[in-house]
Amino acid sequence: QVRLIQSGGGLVQAGDSVRLSCSASGSLFANYALGWFRQAPGKEREFVAVGSWNGDSTEFADSVKGRFTISISRGSAQNTDYLQMNKLKSGGTGLYYCGATFRKDGSRLKGEFELWGRGKQVPVPS
């Protein structure tokens, strides 16, 4: 059974950078895309970024374009996706989730993701 294990995050200040990682453990499979979603307190989970299964393409929400990047590390036993977040904005506190979808080019729709990590909190004080 595949699980998504998240790490990183923690309290940061506006303007800081932080990196989140998402590792897939368990049964090895390659043909999936990893995406990132953010859930602010009292709000719906919203799309942040997604990369295609082979890393050839990425998409970002307009609110993070130019500030966030995705990189992928593929190994024989574990695959890891990284979300680099730069110039974080004041009041941008949220719980960041990584998700896996078998749509190879990824998706902006949370309903199309089959697996989810447990989320990582990134508090950005106002």
Give structural notes.
The chain is mainly β. 0% of the residues lie in helices and 46% in strands. The strands form two sheets. Strands 3, 4, 5, 8, 9 and 10 form a six-stranded antiparallel sheet that branches. It has a four-stranded antiparallel sheet with strand order 1-2-7-6, with no helix packed on it. The radius of gyration is 14 Å and the shape is globular. The protein starts with a strand and ends with a strand. The model has no long low-confidence stretch (mean pLDDT 89).
Blueprint of the fold:
Layout: E1 3-8, E2 18-25, E3 33-39, E4 45-51, E5 58-60, E6 68-74, E7 79-85, E8 94-101, E9 115-116, E10 120-122
Antiparallel strand pairs: 1-2, 2-7, 3-4, 3-8, 4-5, 6-7, 8-9, 8-10
